[in-house]
Amino acid sequence: MHRSPALILAGLALLAAGPALAQSSNGAINSLNATNDRLSTRSEIRGIEQRQQFDSNQTRMQIQRSDLFRPSAPAAPIIVPGRR
Fold first, then answer.
1. 0.85 cut: is pTM over it?
2. How far is the CA of 79 from the CAs of 39, 44, 75, in angstroms?
3. What is the C-alpha to C-alpha distance for residues 65 and 51, in angstroms, rounded to an integer?
4. Distance between CA atoms of residues 12 and 80, nearest Å
5. Cα separations (Å) of 58 from 44, 63, 65, 68, 78?
6. C-alpha span between 54 and 61 (Å, rounded)
7. What is the pLDDT of residue 2?
8. What does the DSSP assignment read for the chain?
9. What gap in Å lies between CA 2 and CA 6, rounded to an integer?
10. 16-62: per-residue pLDDT in tens?
11. Distance from first CA to last CA of the chain, Å, rounded?
12. How far apart are CA 38 and CA 44, in angstroms?
């Protein structure tokens, strides 16, 4: 069988491009890993922010509760003016 020169050249081009294709797929994997790392970091930050907001709300509620149930000041004594 006689192969056409175009087919042989295409085969050689694929062989030469093999390492470059492998590098680009490795780059894609690195890009995916970087994306996963960023998403993980954002998730951790979001969790920390939510915890801080929860703690802040708890503190605010405790302050409001203590203001609400604070014993009132005793009534001022009634002073009757003395007779002379």
1. no
2. 71, 64, 12
3. 21
4. 115
5. 21, 9, 10, 15, 41
6. 11
7. 57
8. -PPPHHHHHHHHHHHHHHHHHHHHHHHHHHHHHHHHHHHHHHHHHHHHHHHHHHHHHHHHHHHHHHHHTPPPPPPPPPPPPPP-
9. 12
10. 666 655 555 688 889 999 999 999 999 999 999 999 999 999 999 99
11. 141
12. 10
Amino acid at 83: R
Chain position carrying tokens 């590098």: 23
Q: Which amino acid is at 80?
A: V
Residue with tokens 């907001």, as numbered in its chain: 53
Q: How far is CA 26 from the centre of its chain?
A: 27
Q: Pull the structure tokens for residue 59.
A: 């503190």
- The type of residue at 43 is S
